[in-house]
Write a structure and sequence with these properties.
31% of the residues lie in helices and 29% in strands. The chain is an alpha+beta fold.
Amino acid sequence: MMVEFYSESPYTLNPQRAVDAFTALLADERLGHVWFIQANSRDVGCVVVTLCYSMEHGGLTAIVDDFFVRPTFRGLGLGKAALAEIRDFCASQGVRALHVETGRDNPAALAVYRRAGFIDTDRLHLTLGLADPTHAP
């Protein structure tokens, strides 16, 4: 599913790094969680949420790190339902804020996130890579 997700983006996926990242995440729930989105008992999407401690928010925060619904299942409310479930789960776990990162040039994703209650904080997200990424532009 990750290959499908990245095939829609301008990024090149490093499959071995993806396997390594998922293996680490699935081995330690302190790092985050993975949900599969299902329709008719079939996996049609997934959401990866990672955890972080934030001084600004005074505790745990979570990041919707990857969010994918197969194209033929988009527009059916599955993503909206998944984000609502994730929001409730995170709140029940004491997570104080939920973040998401998406491109400014992705109006469909922005609309989904805004409908789910995410707001633009007008902050700039900067990154300093310290190792090879799972995907690269």
